[in-house]
Amino acid sequence: MPARQTSKPRISKPRARRQTPETRPYHHGDLRRVLIDAALQLAAEGAEVSVREAARRAAVSPGAPFRHFPNRDALMAAVAEEAQRRFRVEIEAALAEASSIDPLARFRAFGIAYVRWAMHNPAHFEIISTGRYFAYGSSAELIRDNAELVALSERMLAEAASQGLLRSPDLKRTLIAGRALIYGFARMNLDGHFPRWGVEEGEIERMAEGVIDLFIAGIAKG
Amino acid sequence: MPARQTSKPRISKPRARRQTPETRPYHHGDLRRVLIDAALQLAAEGAEVSVREAARRAAVSPGAPFRHFPNRDALMAAVAEEAQRRFRVEIEAALAEASSIDPLARFRAFGIAYVRWAMHNPAHFEIISTGRYFAYGSSAELIRDNAELVALSERMLAEAASQGLLRSPDLKRTLIAGRALIYGFARMNLDGHFPRWGVEEGEIERMAEGVIDLFIAGIAKG
DNA sequence: CCGAAATGTAATCGATGATTACATAATGGA
DNA sequence: TCCATTATGTAATCATCGATTACATTTCGG
């Protein structure tokens, strides 16, 4: 039988507590948090996110993560939560900065911020948008965060409609069209379609603005 | 030459015969083809496409596929080629059936056929659109097929422009916008976004038409 | 202070992509 | 026709991965 490995002299270091009243980690300090960060970084590096690699970066055994996440999908869901939170913060900051009264101008700022974030954080955007890496319904926070962004879009267009700015009376249709346009543009970039469509790398951001403007001009009355 | 059918003593191989009706020869007839079909079917079933499972379905050893594909990505690229071919055939058939002179009506038919195919073949659509499963540049046929569809879209809009049907003089921008809208809609469905946006399953196809109509009305002059 | 709960480790499992050495079939030149 | 070469499939093996289990250790509450 292999001799039991003597355990490392663990220095008990009281780490900073999270404010959230969740499961409080004991041994590692805050392994759950560290694992999420490691996974986020892996995603940001474009590497494949594996539980083992996250554990490796946290300097912990391969089985340890499963004390905090029932399976890989749960880890990915937590990663998505964090990415979604950052996404929402960024979008709301951009809207706050825009500070326009015109709802269509706000919609424009929203769309541009959306595409820009997706361009700068491709791996995170991928994780939060496809639902390929985890069961979407597994995270209430993710659902809530997303619903708020949906509601935000709805409000902008509803306001535009109430001011008589829109051509179509079908608000839902207009909303879905705008969303499809923005999401589609972001994904075309992420999925590497633009080279096939003759759109150069440095041209993409400008093209995003142009395309959103064209859409708004199309739905605006007059 | 008449293929010599050899009797097979097959002493050293008590291997279990698979359910193939004829006694399976040592050499598979067209393993490459069969592997692609098996992988296509796996994708269609929504299962994860693994080389081993494809080999299993072809009743062949796990290493055999690597005689035909240098690695998994190459298999996936071949699968994407086949899926893309079917996709193109379907789109062109839909356009032929539309047989409208109006370029914008043709664009509409194109978009609807696009979304419909993506809805009915989610796994295939995923494979050909993301480039996550293989290196896109690895297949000349894939590039060519795709370029033809791009050119097809361009022609439709260029024709519309030449007939003075478009509001914007920026053809490229209009093209990208239309593509982003259609691709985005198809992906929203594939990525499971519609429930969050209050679009019911049975409503999606109608919504696709509505959204495309709205877009066309937005870019059309008058 | 002590026992229970929390959390980490070691060992192990089955599946996968991939590589290597070897076995067998198919092909074509002498 | 013979047989050597090439194409193609098999067997064995490896490293990695997600996941589970038994066990060790740390922390916390009564």
TrEMBL record, chains A, B:
Residue ranges occupied by any HTH tetR-type domain in the UniProt entry: 29-87
Region annotated Disordered, chain positions: 1-28
Positions of the DNA-binding region: 50-69
Domain of life: Bacteria
UniProt entry keywords in alphabetical sequence: DNA-binding, Transcription, Transcription regulation
Biased composition (Basic and acidic residues): 19-28
Pfam families: TetR_C_33, TetR_N
KW Transcription (keyword) present: yes
Residue ranges of coiled coil: none
Signal peptide stretch: none
Protein name: TetR/AcrR family transcriptional regulator
Organism this protein belongs to: Bradyrhizobium zhengyangense
